[in-house]
Amino acid sequence: MALLAAAIVLVLSVWFAGTVAVPGLIRDGLVSPGRAAWLTAAVQLGFVAGTLLSAVLSLADRLDARRLFCACALVAAVATLTQTAVAPSGTAALALRFVAGATMAGVYPVGMKLAASWAKGDLGLLIGIVVGALTLGSALPHLLPGLIGSVDWRVAYGGAGGLAALGGLLVLGFRPGPLMGARPPFQPAQMLEAWRNRGLRLANLGYLGHMWELYAMWAWIGVFLVGVLGRPQVGSWVFGIMAAGAVGCVVAGLAADRWNRARVAALCMLVSGGCALVIGPAAAWPALALGVAFVWGFAVVADSAQFSACVVSLSPPDYVGTMLTVQTSMGFLLTAVVIGALPHVMALLSPGLAFALLGIGPLLGAIAMWRLAPMLDQALSPR
């Protein structure tokens, strides 16, 4: 699991390479803030396209998981390294970012499937480690500028490309567990099982409520803290808030393996949704707002692994990878919409009220997970 988590963190560096590269690009006048936003959006949209293609073709289940992970990581590495040779804000740059995002469809969901293959009563913890690795990879770019200052955009992309190649090769040393499942025949209609099966449908509805909040919170909590703390540099605070979620993933994973994972996820969603509602009024007291932000950072992603664990437990064994890919595809498509809409809501209302609207998702998602809980009690032990 340490090997798999390390590979995921290394490969996912290509996803967030733009976070490090953009400040230097803007400073040098090579990209406008609006165009820079598209560099991030292109990765999100690429991931959605990649997961849709993977789900239709059942790639995560029909191909060798390690080799698929490695191949996608190497393509991401090439795309990111090539980024240093093209105009940083041109069409080619956006296309390369799209390709890098699309290849993550063969990394993140596949990584969860590889982890689940070793589950022996600790499914929540194993997938929690994978999501924790994703969370740390997401948080790290916020810390780097404070540690080493501004980074040249070519170094950011080149370094991420090299790390992705290393992560892809590293995963070849991972040995799949006994619960990997057979390679099924090609059945595109199998992806519809995500909605035909009531248990999977409830798990996916809970996940959509979770994703309504998660990435928008990660994307805009820094803007909120700049106003609350009255200082332009809040990267270290944002890193700490997001990194708290990695701890939350492990803690919730341990709890979910002991109790009903749907109820654990619902509890996390109630906490994170509550934080979304109160952080705006708490802004009048900076110390209190920071405290709420850290609790929010802990809870907002702590439940993430449990939606995937529910899908693993309720899916046909040979199509676990496909069901995980369908789930992440729907969730990340929703994040692209919410991330883009939230700054407009902030301008129209206020950051605090905009964050309160994010609370709607997890509170509704908690209802879906609470309804799912009795079904998990009756299900067989997680595979």
Automatic annotation (TrEMBL):
Gene3D superfamilies for the chain: MFS general substrate transporter like domains (1.20.1250.20)
Alphabetical UniProt keywords: Membrane, Transmembrane, Transmembrane helix
InterPro entries with a match to the protein in the record: MFS, MFS_dom, MFS_trans_sf
Pfam family, one: MFS_1
TM regions (residue ranges): 37-56, 68-86, 92-111, 123-143, 155-174, 205-228, 234-255, 267-288, 326-346, 352-373
Every Major facilitator superfamily (MFS) profile domain range: 1-377
Top-level taxon: Bacteria
Protein name according to UniProt: MFS transporter
The species this protein was found in: Neoroseomonas terrae
